[in-house]
Amino acid sequence: MAGRIIRSVKEDMHPCVRLTALYTIKQFSKNLKPEFQDQYRDQVLPALTKAMDDFNYPRVQVQAYSALFEFTSNCTPSILNPYLKEIVTKLLKELRGETLKVLSAVAYSSQDQFAEYYSIVMPYLKVIMMTAKKELDHNLLANSVDCITMVWMAVGKEKIRDDTDMVVKMLISLQRSELEANDPMRCQLLQAWARLGKCLGKEFKPYMSVSIPRLLRSAKIGSYVLIPENPDNVDESDGSIRALILGERKIWIKTKVLEEKVAACKGLYLLADELKEGLSVWIEEVAQTLVPFLNFQLNEEIRRVAASAMPVLLKSSKEAKQKGNLELSDESPFEKLCSDVLPALVKALSKESLPEIAAIILDSLEECMKMSGPVLDEDQTDLFLKKIMNVLNSRSKVGDIDVIKQTLQEEQKVYDKAVDCLATFIRIQKSSFSPFLGKLLPCIQLMWEKDKIAKERRTGLRIFCDVAKQFPEEAFRQYNICLLFLFEACKDENPEVLEVAVQAIGIFAEFGAFYALKAVIDHPKALQIEYVMAHDAAVSALGKFLQFHREKLNAAQFLKTWLRHLPLENNLNEAKVAHHQLCSLVEVSDVELLGPKKKNLHKIVTVYAEILWAGKKLATEETVSQMIKQLELYRRRSILSTWRSFMLSMENHLRRKLESKLSS
Fold first, then answer.
1. Dist CA 30 CA 37 (whole Å)
2. Cβ atoms within 10 Å of 560's Cβ, excluding its own
3. For the chain, what is the largest distance between any 2 Cα atoms, rounded to a whole number of angstroms?
4. How many CB atoms lie within 10 A of CB 109?
5. Where are the beta strands (DSSP E) in 225-345?
6. Which residues contact 183 (CB under 8 A, 6 or more apart)?
7. pLDDT tens, 365-420?
8. Which residues contact 195 (CB under 8 A, 6 or more apart)?
9. Percent of the chain beyond pLDDT 90?
10. Sign of CA dihedral 37, 40, 46, 47
């Protein structure tokens, strides 16, 4: 179908057919990206570049530009490169509003490959910019500035040095003039400063005193809400005013004013992300401006930008503090920012209705927690937990026929982020979290119930593991309930649930909970591919029981079972723990591990050989080094004939690996 539509762009087709085909290509480029670009680039780009030359039918030509804009906006440099010279050459012949937008997209998508054409393109753009300024054509001026700054983003600061001064002077001149509310240069001016900062990086510092106050002023701009005396007579046809329903109220928004506010917020975020600690003196004011926008209900893009900016600002403040760029008082700017940002994010999370933005808030909240440490008070902690548990216990089920795929994907992202954020929260807020365990554990237990899907059961177990690691004594007080759930989970048919269940029992090892593991280890399906991760986790957990409660066990018997299942080869994290423990026991010549007359040494050396043969996957460098030293010592102390006999009994690949390691 796509091939037939692309062929319809040919000159011998009726103009109406060609217009329809070009419009369809435009929609495909927009809605089927990037697969459409990847699959049809060699058909689409030649067709579009040819249609750009159709001066007999200007409408076809304009539609070709529009389709090219959508197609190139979602291209990789490798797709564009073979056609870049032809496209740039043709666009330079017809530079105006529409084609300037196309050139912007082409430059940005081609990235550093556009550097070859910079010296050719820039003179044209500067002439258009200055002519538009002189003739007060601010639509063309905005398009030319947009194109120049997009080209700059593509080619980098080394290429633009000779042109920066001229453009900056023009921006400052425009900034000092009184631009009308609907002037397109108001937004473009803000975008230009942000892009210039992104391009120059730390070299943008001389322009901060000019650009950032303007961005802050536009971000704080008010008067974007219109409440007319006669709502029935409001004219929305020109797009300058847009109706918005808030609860039972209907209000009207001045779109251009709100667009300026959005552009300013994006610009502040972009500069903060690029300049980092270089933003130092402006960090506090930027934060004071953006933090309230976490709850800005009139525009979701502003909430999205504000949420994304919080960890960036916190990191900038922390780095500025470390480098001595900030003046310190009783409470450092970084600490004050933490005490402002974290509660604001929690409050925003409790109010956010859009899953996409909720996921961003959770991601930012987790990053901020890692930097800030515990700052939430009791009420804020309670609010956070209520929202998190609400997310974890109220997911839409896959079988709900009214829930579309996109909603499920967004909910799944929020769900996963909530789990990660809660784990970080439990670790960071450890000192003040204990009183809330009584509320959290019953919610976790609800997630273990059989009517929950496997992922929810696994998540409940994972959260319990996080709690047990940080609060082992408190968790153990619940053991009468928890262990029943954990042992029941050991019978779960889902291998992922089974794996986390045995990890949770492993945590209980410090307090003597050693049942059920042998059943998992000796399960008939234990070494099948679906269950090997759970098997390895169970073997590692058994080692932890031996480490902490050896005196209560038949240590020789359990060590023999444990050693028989080594090395672990699938669950790499558990493998490194178990193999380090084995090495430590050998180091102290553990009698029960070595067995009567050290008869288990043969098995231990074979395990070592298998670990060494696997490279660095199954043990840390420290453990591997310790193993080699132990093997060298054992070889020196052994009778030569005994050592040779033992080596010959090993499989060839293991023997060669052992000989190689010992000889080196």
1. 10
2. 15
3. 105
4. 22
5. 225-226, 241-246, 249-254
6. 138
7. 999 999 988 888 888 888 888 888 888 776 544 444 344 455 667 777 888 888 88
8. 149, 150, 152, 153, 270
9. 21
10. negative
